[in-house]
Amino acid sequence: MRWIYWFGWMTLGSAFRSLFGMRVIGAEKLVTEGAVLVASNHESFLDPPLIGNLYTTEMWYLARKTLFRDFGAWLYPRWNAIPVDQDRPDMGSLKTVIKLLKEGKRVLVFPEGERTLDGNLGEVQPGIGLIAVKSGAVIQPVRIRGAREALPRGSGKIRFARISVTVGDPIRLTEEEIKASHGKEGYQVISKRIMDAIAAL
């Protein structure tokens, strides 16, 4: 059923370029081979396909559990979405992400954990630091601008807005950093480093 993923990829990619004039800055910095933990700010429901369109191979991403209902229960798994319970988070979804990365896959994670309400970057959560340390994957920071204006949180109406995606330099944790970063405080340090990289874009 991979054609469903690629049909969505092509359809949404064309829409982003024609409707929103999607512009990619720093595409030459993209890591396109091997396991990559893509870390992005979160502005809109448009964000996962926006980031997915940076690549020509598949990506996996976390999506809130409530989306997996009715037609969504059929569609989202075919779009490589991993369900996560935002109200009662557990290690299940994080273990799935780590497993995918260890298998050499590319996974998108939003360090803030939820979409912004006002356009500002939110508080980083320790989860992405845990994933980075446990998987040892290359981290690719990305900054989205304009998606909130195109489809803000709480709205079901698409608006015309210019969208840009800026790609930052990849982060590769050293063995020393990985060994020194276990436990909640250590994971939070890595999470903050990733969020700072996104903020700098």
UniProtKB/TrEMBL annotation:
GO BP term, example: phosphatidic acid biosynthetic process
Database matches in Pfam families: Acyltransferase
SMART domains the record matches: PlsC (SM00563)
InterPro entries in alphabetical order: Plipid/glycerol_acylTrfase
Molecular function, one GO term: 1-acylglycerol-3-phosphate O-acyltransferase activity
UniProt domain Phospholipid/glycerol acyltransferase: residue ranges: 36-147
The keyword Acyltransferase belongs to this UniProt entry's keyword annotation: yes
Keyword flag Acyltransferase: yes
Keyword set, alphabetical order: Acyltransferase, Transferase
Pathway annotation from the record: Lipid metabolism
Protein name (record): 1-acyl-sn-glycerol-3-phosphate acyltransferase
Native species: Luteolibacter ambystomatis
